[in-house]
User: Which sequence fits this backbone?
């Protein structure tokens, strides 16, 4: 009798396990929500929506993008952490997610320990930008102008990642004590204030300022690419502008899921974003934003994230000297 119960129990466990595996291979069976922690119109939003449209067609289930800005991305991050780890709630983030433990004093646990990396969607350069109608035409001009404290220079950052990059740039230019950082909750307002002349400069992802540069409202002084961009042949790289020692200057857009999400589901999602990143209709969105498709596996993204975390941790003491709300 005991043996019969044992055999029956083993069979039930096998059947249940097989059923769970089958459910995972059917993913998705309902709409998938992709949470973007920034306002509509930015790089994260544009990339997410392009890929969501593609995946909706490929998966046959709606992939919904929801914008939930605030607290340097913490609001969206916490909502994803609280979600069921079944793959139906995903988070889009940038390197700023690895900085949350330094920038928000309400955090008691590193959010990255409660999330799992799924796939890096795309990557792109950052830029240092000024108002278009100004005599500052080069990085050298910027340094000379802002070295004069009478000019009351300032630089804007829209989130922690560009805060770190900009801090490095100002240090390389020996302007740390001469140019005041102005922090914004997002890039859109910062762009408007630079165009309006309220802030001298902005450090941000190139995709957020490319259209304003082309219209003449803004001027990109330098970008973090390895070589000059075909779309911006007259704009030097950071290295060409004398900023070659600035660490961690490229931005990326990645997909995260709640910790505990089954590996088969993570792989299914990663495979989907890999195909999306290289789909012609998505590339039509990425290319004008100067973004390069990636579409990595969970393991590849995890390795890149671990590398970037080391760079961030090494810079944290000087960049994030005090946490902000």
Assistant:
């Amino acid at each position: 009798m005991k043996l019969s119960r044992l055999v029956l129990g083993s069979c039930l466990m096998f059947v249940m396990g097989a059923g769970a595996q089958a459910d995972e291979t059917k993913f998705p069976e309902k709409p998938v929500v992709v949470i973007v922690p920034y306002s509509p119109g930015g790089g994260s939003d544009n990339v997410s929506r392009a890929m969501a449209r593609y995946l909706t067609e490929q998966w046959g289930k709606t992939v919904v993008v929801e914008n939930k800005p605030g607290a340097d991305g913490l609001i969206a991050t916490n909502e994803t952490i609280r979600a069921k780890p079944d793959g139906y709630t995903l988070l889009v983030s940038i390197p700023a997610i690895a900085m949350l433990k330094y920038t928000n004093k309400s955090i008691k646990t590193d959010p990255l320990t409660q999330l799992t990396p799924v796939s890096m969607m795309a990557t792109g350069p950052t830029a240092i930008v000024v108002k278009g109608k100004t005599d500052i035409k080069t990085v050298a001009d910027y340094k000379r102008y802002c070295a004069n404290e009478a000019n009351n220079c300032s630089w804007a950052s829209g989130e922690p990642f560009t805060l770190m990059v900009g801090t490095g740039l100002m240090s390389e230019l020996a302007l740390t004590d001469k140019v005041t950082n102005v922090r914004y909750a997002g890039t859109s307002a910062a762009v408007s204030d630079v165009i309006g002349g309220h802030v001298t400069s902005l450090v941000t992802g190139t995709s957020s300022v490319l259209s304003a540069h082309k219209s003449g409202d803004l001027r990109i002084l330098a970008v973090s690419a390895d070589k000059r961009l075909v779309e911006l042949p007259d704009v030097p790289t950071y290295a060409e502008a004398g900023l070659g020692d600035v660490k961690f200057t490229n931005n990326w857009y990645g997909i995260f899921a709640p910790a505990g999400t089954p590996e088969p589901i993570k792989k299914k999602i990663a495979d989907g974003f890999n195909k999306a990143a290289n789909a012609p209709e998505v590339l039509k969105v990425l290319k004008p934003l100067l973004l390069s498709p990636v579409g990595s596996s969970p393991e590849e993204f995890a390795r890149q994230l671990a590398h970037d975390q080391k760079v961030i941790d090494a810079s944290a003491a000087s960049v994030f000297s005090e946490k902000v709300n």
